[in-house]
Specification:
- The chain is an all-alpha fold.
- It has one domain (6-299).
- The protein has helices at 6-24, 31-45, 48-63, 69-105, 110-121, 124-130, 140-156, 163-176, 193-209, 216-243, 260-275, 285-288, 292-312, 324-347, 363-373; strands spanning 314-315, 318-319.
- Helix 8 (163-176) packs antiparallel against helix 9.
- It is globular, with a radius of gyration of 22 Å.
- The chain starts with 5 loop residues before the first helix and ends with a helix.
């Protein structure tokens, strides 16, 4: 396998597009057929976040094979911290503006509502661990931080092979909770670094540690496994929501964060991508993969702003959000809007694509400040 895995790089931008689909629900509410299509899209898209965790664990394993895992973790921790701060800085202003607008419409004090929203966003547990204090979508970043810290800890202790069995135990416990089986009553959220991210990061790390290399002889079998697990994933979630559960395809979309089938689908897909490292090399997708992390952290405020506008712009006596055209446009508009904002702040010098995401003053402001001081 070459130094660059084009297939994984290409999948990054595809995966973040799938994340946007999860959050925009493009066909939900367009009758039973629309709900059914949205259910399938949303189910397939659930492979995206596990893919990101798997890739992070895999490359963590490759980078630390002959290096200090703690030193490499520190570097990743700095990168993730900058990314998280950037996500909060971008998301907080439009979310506070939305809070003020909603309060004004409801006849409440905008200042008081914004004040309470700021206080809520300072919850230490939600801000530093769950990552949901400003936007629930940002949960992935601190979850990856925690998961990498756990894997690095096992590696530093000289027992990296124990990380995956321990992670499996936590993940199984999460599946027994209310998110899936409902057998165990867990009084806390399990979509986090310990119960969710740890499992996939340690799985990716284990794949790298075992020196797994794909080959042309395996790719066909792995593709078949990916399709089979994908179909199982759809059937499993359909059974859980619409057969065993009380959800109705006519009225809504059953959308749990993860199920048993998610793991098989994600791992088989990741192994298939490793088996075909040149897949996508002749397309722009691998290069676009470097924008994936930015689109991920920027799309929450773009999503919120577009949603607010669509709810308030009338079209033929109904809000724009209820039109078929909007259902078709919402997802690409959110994706392209987030990409545009991300590239804009990069060109302004606020952050650096592929580098530091700690926000800094725009380049012109720094230059003008330097000129005044000379």
């Amino acid at each position: 396998m070459g130094s660059r895995i084009h297939s994984v790089d290409a999948m990054r931008i595809v995966a973040v597009a799938l994340v946007v689909i999860i959050h925009t629900n493009p066909f939900e509410g367009v009758g039973a057929t629309g709900n059914a299509v949205n259910f399938v899209l949303e189910t397939v898209a659930r492979v995206a976040v596990p893919f990101f965790f798997l890739a992070s664990g895999y490359f963590f394993g490759l980078k630390t094979r002959d290096a200090d895992p703690i030193a490499y973790f520190r570097a990743r921790a700095r990168s993730l911290t900058g990314l998280y701060v950037f996500g909060i800085v971008v998301a907080l202003p439009p979310f506070l503006a939305g809070t003020a607008v909603e309060a004004s419409v409801a006849g409440e004090s905008p200042a008081r509502s914004v004040g309470w929203r700021i206080v809520e966003s300072l919850s230490p547990v939600d801000l530093l661990y769950y990552g949901t204090s400003v936007s629930e979508i940002l949960w992935y970043v601190p979850a990856l931080f925690v998961a990498l810290a756990l894997v690095a800890g096992f590696a530093a202790a000289g027992r990296p092979e124990l990380a995956l069995p321990v992670a499996v135990g936590f993940h199984v416990l999460a599946l027994l909770g209310p998110e899936y089986a409902g057998i165990v009553d867990l009084p806390f959220d399990v979509r986090d670094g310990l119960f969710f991210g740890f499992f996939y990061v340690s799985a990716g790390h284990a794949i790298a540690a075992r020196g797994w290399r794909g080959g042309s002889g395996r790719s066909g079998a792995l593709l078949a496994a990916t399709v089979a697990f994908g179909l199982f994933h759809v059937a499993e979630r359909y059974a859980m929501g619409y057969v065993l559960g009380d959800a109705s395809i006519a009225t809504g979309v059953y959308a749990p964060s993860f199920t048993v089938g998610t793991a098989g689908f994600a791992v088989s897909l990741f192994l298939f991508l490793l088996s075909r490292p040149g897949l996508g090399a002749s397309t722009p997708l691998p290069a676009w993969g470097s924008y994936a992390v930015g689109v991920y952290v920027v799309h929450p405020p773009v999503l919120a702003v577009l949603g607010q506008l669509a709810d308030r712009i009338p079209v033929g006596g109904s809000p724009l959000a209820e039109t078929v055209g909007w259902h078709l446009a919402f997802t690409p508009a959110t994706f392209l809007g987030a990409l545009g904002v991300y590239l804009a702040v990069h060109r302004l010098g606020v952050i650096e694509v592929g580098g530091s995401h700690f926000p800094r003053l725009p380049r012109r402001s720094r230059l003008s400040g330097r000129s005044r001081s000379e």
